[in-house]
Amino acid sequence: EVQLVESGGGLVKPGGSLRLSCAASGFTFSSYSMNWVRQAPGKGLEWVSSISSSSSYIYYADSVKGRFTISRDNAKNSLYLQMNSLRAEDTAVYYCARSQLADYWGQGTLVTVSS
Amino acid sequence: DIQMTQSPSSLSASVGDRVTITCRASQGIRNDLGWYQQKPGKAPKRLIYAASSLQSGVPSRFSGSGSGTEFTLTISSLQPEDFATYYCLQHNSYPRTFGGGTKVEIK
Predict the structure, then answer these.
(1) How far is B31 from chain A (nearest CA, A)?
(2) Do A105 and B89 touch (CB under 8 A)?
(3) Rounded to an integer, what distance in angstroms lies between the CA atom of residue A62 and that of residue B54?
(4) Which residues share a beta bridge with A35?
(5) How far apart are CA A74 and CA A92, in angstroms?
(6) What is the largest CA-CA distance in chain A?
(7) Nearest residue on chain B to A102, alpha-carbon basis
(8) Which pLDDT score, from 0 to 100, does residue B107 have?
(9) Which of A36, A48, A101 to mutate to test the interface with B (most CBs of B within 10 A)?
(10) Of chain A residues 25-44, which have a CB less than 8 A from chain B?
(11) Could A101 and B91 be called an inter-chain contact, meaning their C-beta atoms sit closer than 8 Å?
(12) What is the band of B9 on the pLDDT scale with cuts at 50, 70, 90?
């Protein structure tokens, strides 16, 4: 069974940093690209970033480019999102999703940016 | 960037009704589109991939159609558990883009 479990969310002040993790199991993690998608409270889904299976290709939404860094550790079956210079508008539930087709999703982790 | 325009943004329907939701892409995306269902407080769940292929385990009352720029999600007979918000997602190019969502409510 495919499982994706996000962690690392919490309350952070504007300008602060946070690192999200996504632990994958039930599939060959190193064979799949991975994504981060977020959802602000009461809003729709917003794609944040994607990374290819070998980390050769990385993409970011303009809204996070230069502030967020996606990475992965295939030996640990884990995906990461380093978030720096956080803003109030980054407040959202952050989901990791498997593959270019976003076929499986984790349950999400809430990031709140507030003073 | 490819814009995905989803309509309607909300609808009210009764159990047993046929429901149709549309996504329009700002440029052709072949059939590189998925449909997702999201219930409050839960993660999105994929229903349809490649525009018209039913995800394993998803009831056959859900169907998708379209190619290029016009796509449709149809629920043939709405069930109580189908009241949720639905999104389309294009994976033809980066940045990936979602439709704005359609909230299906009980009439």
Answers:
(1) 12
(2) no
(3) 32
(4) A50, A97
(5) 26
(6) 40
(7) B46
(8) 85
(9) A101
(10) 35, 44
(11) yes
(12) very high
